[in-house]
């Protein structure tokens, strides 16, 4: 049994996971309780079983496993009442046998509901496939269409095995929404003819051309039934009050519309075509496909992709709806997992194979029924399965009642659904993202030519639009300030809006050429992409402009690409973090401060989002091979000293030891610190580093405390951890005072190594500092800790072998300037050491 297995929960039954959680005690079987499971002990037997009346009351209240079953049972009935008329209407719209819609609804509920990856998604015949199926029936006949459905299901199984579900979602939402809108328009035009009492034509264009003649000669009976259906569908959701809410919950709009229009037609004695469900004995089953091979392959591919994408989009929408809703308190412990898209595609493939084999329509996830299922309170896949069972039962027991429904009522219902597929929210979304052209092109292509052709047109327009955006770059130059000719004395701002590719290089070169020599220039890069040609152009111009006495500052999203140095190692510089804008969340209203914890978590989030993908491969290599640093770096714990920044190092480069004051306690003292000594021994003996660097810095708090203690007559407090630790820095203070001719600090002698003449360090040519005495102590401390370092046996042995080097380093925080000790005394012990500043581009060994 896995160590990560979820333990069996305790407490009330309502806290147990349901089948919505695949790791729960019900497992994949869909049962809430599974006594006798080999991996779990059976629950203790209850003292007394509840009486039948109490069990009924629990079910009605919705508590415990019975409550879960009650929630799913109620939701399944609601979805069934919506699915039944819609399935008949979609079958009517495709020209398939009406029973094919019922078969697809039952199979979609039972098979896709049981094996799919979205527990609350409801599958069945969908309006999105209506135009495709109608065209297939017209070209190949119903039996061959059923065979195409089986093959499409098999193709979906293959795609799920290849785990390509996520890649199917790379199609632009504008194309998907445009396809759905085009299908909706086509459905509405075709069903409008049936509502008017006529018959639809074979295409949307033919339906539009025939519409004036149909309007001139309507059938009053069909028009009356259609008008009643449309009115009820549109007005039913507007019922208000508790009575209206209860009515809408018990009788969904689709069921109410069909029921009322059927009642009107029966009571008024209207003579018009009605539902005709032939005997199941004569139900048409699939046959071997007949037709051109390429045409059949295109048909299978179309059904596979359209049904798959629609199902996956619906599954993702079900996740959002599930998270957004609020469950009742008695169901608050129920966990509903996120959709597994590959499993969902596998379930849809199985459902399509079964539906096609039984003479049903293609199956796909249906957003309308899924939304109704979630809003009705479903908490597991049992509601979806039960809704399929109810459709199956109704297909056998309610045939007489279903045959009373006028075809005009079903046509009006599907016509409203088609109109509602053109969603205003989708149009606003694509307009906001400047993709309305893709949306319109796809929708028009679907209406005029067909689904596959329309999607192809949408993809072509989307690619052309992306290329246009990539190639269309706006570059302007303006001068801010300066009253001289050509803007002399001012700042020249070159603004680039768009992506910098080779197509924009001529405009970029021409604009940069207009900038006067020796001027100050700020280049603002507004795009997120820059190719090599643009990079070389901008880089060469920057080098030339700087060489002629000008200054260049490059800002914007693409700035780091240009600021990358030309050194062979290819390291990128430290990126700006001013005010921690990349990690600090926006403060709340009226608050000027942000908790440190929020900033830390913001930094972690920023790392996972931006940096982790870039370093994951390198860290994986280090995890496999282990660490092999070349240097031991001993420095202060001061938060202003960022070792990776000042050394341009990355993971695996430095073995770093940080402590207060960058101290190296010598061996053999009473207050010796084993932690630092252990780190030195591990780095020198085990990791076999090639060098050890001791790095001090300006404004060191530890050195300030030592300096103040000297001024106060040795007022260090040895009774505290900090006081005991700072005693390791007293030799540095003694070194400094001895060099200046002062008496050593009183106190017990320190056993650390001493040179005959203490060597202190200096910065040649440096101007006097505000805290010159403190800086002198910080410099002396670096030299003193190097002496302590040599006293460690492992270091002394490696130094004698010539396989280890020692380095001293000093970093002035306020000036962002690094200094290197030019004579660290790798065993010679003489000379007057000096700290030499590191210059840009210098090769420092």
TrEMBL record:
Residues 71-441 form the SLC26A/SulP transporter domain. The chain crosses the membrane at residues 73-93, 100-120, 140-162, 174-196, 221-239, 251-273, 293-317, 384-401, 407-425, 437-467. It is a multi-pass membrane protein. It is found in: Membrane. Its main location: membrane. Residues 1-67 are annotated as: Disordered. It comes from the Bacteria. InterPro entries: Carbonic_anhydrase, Carbonic_anhydrase_sf, SLC26A/SulP_dom, SLC26A/SulP_fam. Keywords: Membrane, Transmembrane, Transmembrane helix. Belongs to the beta-class carbonic anhydrase family. Catalyzes the reversible hydration of carbon dioxide to form bicarbonate. This is Bifunctional SulP family inorganic anion transporter/carbonic anhydrase. It comes from Streptomyces chitinivorans.
């Amino acid at each position: 049994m896995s160590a990560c297995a979820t333990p069996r929960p305790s407490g009330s039954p309502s806290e147990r996971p349901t089948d919505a959680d695949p790791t729960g005690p019900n497992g994949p079987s869909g049962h809430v309780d599974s006594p006798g499971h080999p991996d779990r002990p059976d629950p203790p037997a209850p003292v007394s079983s509840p009486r039948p009346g109490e069990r009924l009351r629990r079910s009605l209240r919705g508590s415990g496993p019975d409550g879960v079953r009650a929630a799913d049972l109620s939701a399944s009935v609601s979805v069934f009442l919506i699915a039944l008329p819609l399935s008949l209407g979609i079958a009517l719209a495709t020209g398939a046998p009406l029973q094919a819609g019922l078969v697809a609804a039952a199979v979609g509920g039972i098979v896709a509901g049981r094996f799919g990856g979205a527990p609350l998604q409801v599958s069945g015949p969908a309006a999105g496939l209506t135009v495709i199926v109608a065209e297939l029936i017209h070209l190949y006949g119903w039996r061959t269409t059923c065979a195409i459905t089986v093959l499409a299901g098999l193709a979906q199984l293959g795609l799920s095995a290849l785990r390509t579900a996520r890649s199917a979602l790379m199609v632009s939402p504008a194309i998907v929404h445009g396809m759905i809108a085009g299908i909706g328009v086509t459905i509405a035009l075709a069903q409008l003819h049936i509502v008017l009492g006529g018959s639809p034509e074979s295409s949307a264009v033919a339906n539009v051309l025939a519409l004036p003649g149909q309007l001139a000669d309507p059938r009053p009976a069909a028009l009356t039934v259609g008008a009643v259906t449309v009115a009820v569908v549109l007005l039913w959701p507007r019922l208000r009050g508790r009575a209206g809410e209860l009515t809408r919950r018990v009788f969904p709009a689709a069921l109410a519309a069909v029921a009322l229009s059927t009642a009107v037609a029966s009571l008024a004695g209207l003579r018009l075509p009605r539902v005709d469900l032939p005997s199941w004995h004569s139900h048409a089953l699939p046959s071997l496909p007949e037709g051109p091979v390429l045409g059949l392959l295109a048909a299978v591919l179309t059904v596979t992709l359209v049904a798959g994408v629609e199902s996956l989009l619906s599954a993702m929408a079900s996740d959002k709806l599930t998270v957004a809703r609020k469950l009742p308190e008695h169901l608050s412990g129920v966990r509903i997992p996120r959709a597994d898209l590959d499993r969902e595609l596998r379930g849809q493939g199985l459902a399509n194979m079964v539906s096609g084999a039984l003479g049903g329509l293609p199956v796909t996830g249906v957003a309308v029924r899924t939304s109704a299922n979630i809003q009705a309170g479903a908490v597991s896949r049992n509601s979806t399965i039960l809704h399929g069972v109810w459709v199956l039962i109704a297909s056998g027991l309610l045939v007489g009642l279903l045959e009373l429904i006028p075809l005009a009522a079903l046509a009006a219902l599907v016509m409203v659904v088609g109109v509602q597929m053109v969603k205003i929210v989708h149009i606003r979304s694509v307009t906001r993202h400047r993709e309305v052209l893709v949306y319109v092109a796809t929708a028009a292509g679907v209406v005029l030519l067909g689904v596959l052709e329309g999607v192809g047109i949408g993809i072509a327009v989307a690619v052309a639009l992306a290329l246009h955006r990539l190639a269309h770059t706006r570059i302007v130059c303006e001068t801010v300030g300066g009253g001289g000719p050509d803007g002399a004395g001012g700042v020249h701002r070159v603004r680039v809006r768009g992506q910098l590719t080779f197509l924009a290089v001529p405009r970029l070169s021409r604009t940069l050429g207009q900038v006067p020599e020796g001027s100050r220039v700020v280049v603002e890069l507004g795009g997120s992409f820059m190719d090599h040609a643009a990079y070389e152009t901008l880089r060469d111009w920057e080098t030339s402009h700087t060489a002629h006495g000008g200054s260049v500052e490059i800002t914007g999203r693409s700035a780091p690409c240009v600021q990358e140095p030309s050194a062979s190692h290819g390291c990128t510089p430290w990126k700006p973090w001013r005010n921690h804008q990349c990690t600090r969340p926006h403060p709340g209203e009226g608050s000027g401060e942000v908790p440190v914890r929020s900033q830390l978590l913001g930094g972690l989030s920023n790392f996972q989002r931006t940096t982790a993908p870039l370093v994951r491969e390198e860290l994986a290599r280090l995890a496999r091979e282990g660490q092999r640093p070349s240097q031991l770096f001993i420095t202060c714990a001061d938060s202003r000293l960022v070792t990776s920044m000042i050394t341009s190092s990355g993971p695996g480069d430095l073995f770093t030891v940080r402590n207060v004051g960058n101290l190296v306690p010598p061996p053999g003292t009473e207050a010796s610190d084993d932690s630092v000594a252990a780190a030195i021994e591990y780095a020198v003996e085990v990791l076999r580093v090639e060098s050890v660097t001791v790095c001090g810095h300006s404004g060191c708090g530890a050195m300030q405390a030592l300096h103040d203690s000297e001024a106060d007559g040795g007022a260090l407090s040895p009774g505290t951890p900090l006081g005991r630790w700072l005693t390791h820095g007293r030799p540095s203070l003694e070194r400094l005072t001895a060099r200046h001719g002062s008496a050593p600090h009183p106190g017990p002698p320190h056993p650390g190594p001493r040179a005959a003449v203490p060597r202190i360090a200096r910065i040649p040519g440096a101007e006097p500092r505000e805290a010159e005495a403190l800086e002198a102590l910080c410099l002396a401390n670096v030299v003193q800790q190097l002496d302590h370092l040599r006293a460690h046996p492992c270091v002394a042995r490696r130094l004698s072998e010539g396989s280890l080097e020692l380095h001293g380093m000093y970093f002035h925080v306020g000036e962002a300037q690094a200094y290197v000790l030019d004579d660290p005394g790798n065993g010679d012990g003489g000379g007057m050491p000096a700290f030499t500043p590191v210059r840009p581009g210098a090769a420092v060994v």
